[in-house]
């Protein structure tokens, strides 16, 4: 009998890609070996050396009402797939369950179509660009759009791990269900066909001029387009509503190569770690796996390392089926994991393995040499009894993800229930790149902008201190540079040296609102100016949201879980929630949780166009008289560690993470007004999860930034939730609105306060009669501090930190 | 190097500084670009090829790697293959 508390099932599927607008259409074409690869339609590839792609239908019905006009194509694809999955599952999302239904979506290039449109318009005639395109640009808006259509009010976030993103979304949903955070999740991912990806892979000479031929000719990839959505649900929830259950989701594995930003490890270690961890977390042996849907991009390096990994782990099995559905639908990037997971579920539940198409008679002869006992399913699908199926995806940044589906219930590896402590910090901020520099800035009442906001500086001294070589750091955009330095500072502060003994026991969750927007736009501007064929091979690898986390792993050798979350500013707190789960469950001993965002000319342009850019000298929150805020930037990293690990090495414990909650109340993309109830719920639930009353909170580190809508929501919520007036501290008055970096810094500020690293006398606000009054508080006896943050679109995160006894 | 080659070499150096973010003070015309010198990799070589194509109209895809040894070798190849 399985432990049903840990049992996660798939109850709904939805998909659109080059060979179908629905799961049934796409699946039928898939098992019949129909290729969706054609001449590219949506962008002009005439000046490029390759011209093929696997695009979804140009027009399709979305059923998104008035919101349809406000969405980029990537969200339209995602909503289309999500609507089908919801309908397929029969789940009714209403007031009775919405708080426990979440949305986690993966994407690689996000709103790249809108980015291209905005900057092409601007290039052609400055001032003609459409401000409404700005809201559509970030990956972060995708899950919000799905949540709004679906009515979901639980955890809402996006995974930005490039080509492994939507595989990770499935695993994270299972983690959250097993942690009791939610009952059902709409997961998956989407990517639209974009100049960004086509120009990037052209620059890398990674496109095949013929239809891609994974595991076969391996001459390069063919880009695809699409979306996949799955309903992942707790078994009890599914049974209680008499849902159709496709299959169980067992364990997954997420690893980091610590090798190269685009190339896989030659020894396949990272890929094998993901597969091995998925097996061990599922309590399965390699010989149990009947079918693997491979990553199988068709590039020489991917295919050779992946075949090597599979031969090493599964090579002794009799007749494990391995296929590449990318041979038909191309590489759908952030949607690939979801599309392939759906094909895997269909294969498992129909005992039918799709083919890898494109083998000639000569190819079949060559295949015999490299296939060994693996069956690469050339050209035709086969009937095969499947009990356990695995799907694998690997991404830029060196991230690998594997997940296993099972036809029947199965006991999986039990989770631990560790206490989680904060044992280190790394702060790169406009105040400097040490914890002491931040403490000093707080003592001095904050920094002053000279007009363009506040800027962090990473330079020669930092690289020298951490032994980071020119040949490494010159590759990184500033966002990644700040991340590497803050991560290294955090490791140093925690007293952790990465060795071959602990390299897989340490991981990282990165949270970012805007990601590498500046590098993405640099790349686009190159395409617009020089042509689609002349993109920068140097810049392109930095355009993925998980580049910063990937570079950190490469620099330090950290090989554990490595995930990048993006849903507005609160992503810097969501990273703490994810990292906390990983450590509490016992999947890693140490997890670094980061928030990072940048302040550049690009940010000034975009926030300026939206009416948010302030040239004031500092953030002045809670005055309720403006919309603008002073931009800041940086990266803040917090080390979270299990009690046993911290005790074993006598680590300093700065604070305990006592509980968290993530909530959502949908409002229009890019807005916040009307989502107040979700902040109330986040605070109340976070306290519940911490095992305390809201009145036990001694003080809050808040998110007010001078935007009156944002500030009013925060002030009013605290008035409703708390009986007594709570002091509210602000990190943004110190270092500016550095978005996800500020959200993470809020938690760091709380931990520094509880541990006595910050002075006991601190500035704070109290809200009385609708007004904020500055005061000084004595933090000596504080036991519990609350940290809050938000994302436009209506998402909130609250975390409770507890003083260490 | 004659004046013409030096002019080309300077432009190539600028490509390396601008496109590959190598600090100018780290570069002279003789330092080895790949391997033990500056330590460039295959992605950098794509960027160099694209930059030289754009600046000089000289195609270096598939060209023997000794021509990429340093800025001097690159400028020599470019000079010999430029159309006046």
What report would you give on this structure?
The complex is a heterodimer of chains A (805) and B (84). With 805 residues, chain A is α/β, with parallel strands linked by helices. Chain A is built from 26 helices and 26 strands. The longest helix of chain A is centred in the first third of the chain and has 17 residues, at 73-89. With 84 residues, chain B is mostly helical. Helices cover 52% and strands 0% of the residues of chain B. Chain B has helices at 3-20, 42-56, 71-81. Chain B is globular and about 35 Å long. The chains are: A alpha/beta (805), B mainly alpha (84).
Query: How many beta-strand segments of chain B?
Result: 0
Shape of chain A: globular
Stretches with pLDDT under 50, minimum 5 residues of chain A:
none
User: What does the oligomeric state look like here?
Assistant: heterodimer
State the main characteristics:
heterodimer; A: 805 residues; alpha/beta; 10-stranded mixed β-sheet; 26 strands; 20% strand; globular; B: 84 residues; mainly alpha; 3 helices; 0% strand
Gist of the model:
The complex is a heterodimer of chains A (about 800) and B (about 80). With about 800 residues, chain A is an alpha/beta fold. Chain A contains 26 helices and 26 strands.
């Amino acid at each position: 009998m399985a432990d049903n508390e840990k049992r996660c099932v798939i109850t709904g599927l939805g998909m659109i890609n080059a060979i179908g607008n629905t799961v049934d259409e796409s699946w039928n074409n898939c098992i019949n070996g129909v290729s969706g690869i054609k001449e590219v339609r949506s962008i002009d590839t005439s000046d490029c050396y390759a011209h093929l792609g696997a695009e979804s239908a140009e027009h399709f019905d979305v059923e998104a009402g008035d919101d349809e006009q406000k969405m980029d194509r990537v969200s339209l694809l995602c909503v289309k797939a999500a609507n089908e999955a919801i309908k397929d599952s029969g789940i009714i999302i209403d007031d009775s369950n919405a708080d426990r239904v979440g949305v986690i979506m993966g994407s690689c290039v996000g709103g790249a179509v809108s980015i291209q449109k905005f900057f092409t318009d601007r290039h052609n005639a400055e001032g003609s660009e459409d401000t409404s395109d700005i809201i559509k640009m970030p990956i972060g808006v995708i899950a919000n759009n799905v949540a709004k259509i679906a009515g979901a009010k639980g955890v809402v976030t996006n995974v930005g791990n490039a080509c492994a993103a939507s595989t990770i979304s499935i695993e994270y949903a299972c983690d959250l269900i097993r942690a009791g955070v939610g009952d059902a999740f709409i997961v998956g991912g989407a990517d639209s066909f974009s100049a960004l990806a086509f120009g990037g892979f052209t620059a890398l000479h990674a496109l095949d001029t013929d239809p891609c031929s994974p595991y076969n000719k391996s001459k390069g990839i063919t880009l695809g387009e699409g979306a996949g959505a799955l309903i992942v649900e707790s078994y009890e929830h599914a049974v209680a509503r008499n849902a159709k259950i496709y299959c169980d989701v067992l364990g997954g594995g997420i690893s980091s190569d610590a090798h190269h930003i685009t190339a896989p490890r030659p020894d396949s270690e990272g890929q094998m770690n993901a597969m091995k961890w998925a097996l061990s977390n599922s309590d399965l042996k390699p010989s149990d796996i009947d079918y693997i849907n491979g990553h199988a991009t068709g590039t020489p390096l991917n295919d050779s390392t992946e075949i090597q990994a599979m031969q090493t782990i599964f090579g002794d099995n009799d007749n494990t089926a391995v296929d590449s559905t990318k041979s038909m639908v191309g590489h759908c990037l952030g949607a690939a994991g979801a599309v392939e997971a759906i094909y895997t579920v269909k294969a498992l539940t129909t005992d039918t393995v799709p083919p890898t198409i494109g083998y000639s008679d000569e190819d079949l002869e060559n295949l015999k040499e490299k296939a060994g006992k693996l069956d690469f399913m050339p050209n035709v699908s086969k009937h095969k009894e499947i009990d356990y199926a695995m799907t694998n995806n690997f991404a830029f940044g060196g991230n690998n993800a594997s997940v296993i589906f099972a036809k029947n219930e199965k006991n999986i590896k039990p989770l631990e229930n560790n206490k989680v402590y904060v044992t280190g910090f790394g702060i790169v901020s406009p105040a400097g790149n040490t914890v002491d520099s931040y403490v000093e800035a707080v003592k001095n009442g904050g920094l002053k902008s000279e007009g363009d906001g506040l800027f962090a500086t990473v330079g020669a001294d930092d690289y020298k201190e951490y032994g980071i070589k020119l040949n490494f750091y010159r590759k990184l955009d500033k966002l990644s540079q700040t991340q590497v330095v803050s991560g290294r500072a955090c490791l140093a502060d925690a007293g952790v040296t990465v060795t071959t003994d602990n390299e897989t026991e340490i991981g990282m969750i990165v949270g970012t609102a805007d990601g590498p927007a500046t590098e993405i736009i640099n790349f686009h501007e190159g395409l617009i100016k020089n042509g689609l064929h002349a993109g920068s091979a140097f810049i392109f690898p930095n355009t993925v949201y998980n580049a910063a986390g990937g570079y950190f792993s490469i620099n330090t050798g950290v090989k554990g879980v490595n995930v990048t979350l993006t849903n507005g500013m609160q992503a810097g707190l969501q990273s703490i929630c994810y990292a906390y789960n990983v450590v509490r469950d016992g999947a890693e001993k140490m997890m670094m949780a980061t928030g990072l965002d940048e302040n550049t000319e690009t940010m000034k342009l975009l926030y300026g166009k939206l009416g948010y850019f302030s040239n004031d000298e500092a953030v002045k929150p809670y005055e309720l008289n403006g919309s603008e805020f002073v931009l800041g930037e940086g990266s803040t990293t917090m080390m979270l560690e299990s009690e046993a690990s911290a005790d074993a090495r006598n680590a300093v414990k700065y604070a305990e993470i006592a509980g968290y909650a993530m909530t959502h109340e949908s409002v229009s993309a890019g807005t916040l007004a009307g989502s107040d109830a979700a902040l109330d719920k986040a605070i109340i639930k976070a306290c519940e999860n911490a095992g305390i009353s809201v009145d036990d909170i001694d003080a809050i580190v808040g998110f007010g930034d001078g935007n009156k809508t944002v500030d009013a929501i925060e002030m009013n919520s605290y008035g409703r939730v708390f009986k007594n007036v709570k002091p509210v501290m602000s990190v943004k008055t110190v270092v500016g609105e550095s978005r996800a970096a500020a959200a993470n810094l809020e938690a760091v500020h709380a931990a520094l306060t509880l541990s006595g690293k910050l002075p006991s006398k601190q500035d704070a606000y109290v809200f009385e009669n609708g007004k904020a009054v500055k005061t000084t508080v004595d933090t000596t006896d504080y036991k519990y501090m609350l940290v809050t943050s938000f994302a436009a679109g209506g998402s909130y995160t609250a975390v409770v930190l507890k003083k260490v006894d | 190097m004659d004046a013409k080659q030096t002019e080309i070499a300077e432009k190539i150096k600028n490509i390396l500084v601008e496109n590959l973010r190598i600090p100018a003070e780290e570069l002279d015309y003789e330092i080895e670009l790949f391997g033990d010198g500056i330590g460039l990799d295959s992605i950098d070589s794509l960027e160099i090829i694209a930059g030289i194509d754009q600046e000089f109209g000289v195609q270096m895809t598939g060209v023997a790697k000794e021509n990429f040894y340093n800025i001097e070798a690159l400028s020599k190849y470019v000079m010999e293959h430029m159309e006046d």
